[in-house]
Amino acid sequence: MKKFTVLLTVLFIVGLFILPGVSNAAIEEAKAMVEKAEAYFQANGKEKTLQELNNPKGEFVKGEIYVFAYDAAGTVIAHPVNAKLVGTNTLEVPDVDGKLWRKEAMEKVKKDGTAVVDYKFKNPVSGKVEQKTTYFKKVGDIILGCGTYK
Q1: CA gap 27, 75 in Å, rounded
Q2: Mutual orientation of helices 46-53 and 2-44 as an angle, nearest 10°?
Q3: pLDDT digits over 130-148, tens only?
Q4: pLDDT tens digit string along 111-130?
Q5: d(Cα 143, Cα 70) in Å, to the nearest integer?
Q6: Is-above-0.85 flag for pTM?
Q7: What's the mean pLDDT in 98-109?
Q8: How far apart are CA 40 and CA 48, in angstroms?
């Protein structure tokens, strides 16, 4: 019994160090997608970038991870998973817990150029509302975002 207790304790401690790495790896993947979209923007311009970001089968969609874009006022200007959002200002739309995550993101981006925000959002793959972490970055006059579900 003592060996079993020691084994459980070791597994718990190891898990504390491994699990945050999974989360960090996922947000790094989202950040890499935003940086890839930024390079695309630099090479192809705003209009072509927005066209590609709005393409549900484009290069910036990888299952539940996808890049979307806002203008500086918080209006969705590209969303490959939910085209109905394009043209809608969602700055004051909260998540299911009442968090104004878009407003928080826009304020951080205006101040620092980038932001990482946690909130709840419907996962397009599972169809369930889940915890999500999104990386945002100002690129030219738009704000790119890409998140990962936990």
Answers
A1: 23
A2: 140
A3: 999 999 999 999 999 999 9
A4: 999 999 999 988 888 889 99
A5: 5
A6: no
A7: 96
A8: 9
* DSSP structure string for the chain: -HHHHHHHHHHHHHHHHHHHHHHHHHHHHHHHHHHHHHHHHHHH-HHHHHHHHT-TTSTTEETTEEEEEEETTSBEEE-SS-GGGTT-B-TT---TT---HHHHHHHHHHHHSEEEEEEEEE-TTT-SEEEEEEEEEEETTEEEEEEEE-
Q: How many CB atoms lie within 10 A of CB 81?
A: 14
**11 φ, ψ (degrees, to nearest 5):** -60, -40
Q: Please report where in the chains the tokens 């718990």 appear, as a residue.
A: 12
CA angle 146, 90, 25 (to 5 degrees): 15
Domains and CATH numbers, the chain: 2-149 (3.30.450.20)
Alpha-carbon separation of residue 122 from 17, 20, 110, 128 (angstroms):
28, 22, 26, 5
Amino acid at 8: L
